[in-house]
Amino acid sequence: MPWFLGLLVLTLVPILSTVVASVAMIVAGLSHRKVPGLRRYNGAKAADWGLTYLLATVLLCGGHVVLLGLFANEDPVESFFPLGIPITTWALVTVFHLVYCVYAGVRAEKRRPIGFSGIPFFSRGLSAGP
């Protein structure tokens, strides 16, 4: 369930839906803390990815706003790049997020451990075994 909450990004409210999806993944993933075994492990992995994706959103979208504020006021912006690199990177990360949430959600439903989950904030030291 926590992995499929990442699909809330599809509500198509830029930035806000990203924050909501990330927070939902973190909360739902951490709600499995008291359950032993694989559910706890996969829940922690979902929380890890939710927080990693939230940080990527804040850094990349914030970086884009900072770049626009620093450079767009002096001269008119004639092209999207290089100022658009952070927001384009965020869009690519979002596409990866959508695909990976489906993949990891299906894998978790089949009771298989999730490998990659971004920065291991919550899953450090956990094992997928009983």
Question: Topology, pairings included?
Answer:
Elements: H1 16-30, H2 38-71, H3 85-109
Helix pairs in contact: 1-2, 2-3
Helix and strand element order: HHH
Mean pLDDT: 86
Beta strand count: 0
The largest sheet is: none
- Please tell me what the overall shape is: elongated
Number of domains: 1
Q: Total number of helical segments?
A: 3
The percent range for strand residues is: under 5%
The gyration radius over C-alpha positions equals 17 Å
Low-confidence stretches: none
Structural category is mainly alpha
- Specify the helix fraction band: 55-70%
**Oligomer type:** single chain
- Termini distance? 20 Å
Describe the structure.
The protein is mainly α and 130 residues long. The chain has one domain (4-109). The protein has helices at residues 16-30, 38-71, 85-109. It is elongated and about 60 Å long. The two termini are 20 Å apart. The mean pLDDT is 86.
Defining key terms:
130 residues, transmembrane, 3 helices, elongated, transmembrane helix, membrane, mainly alpha
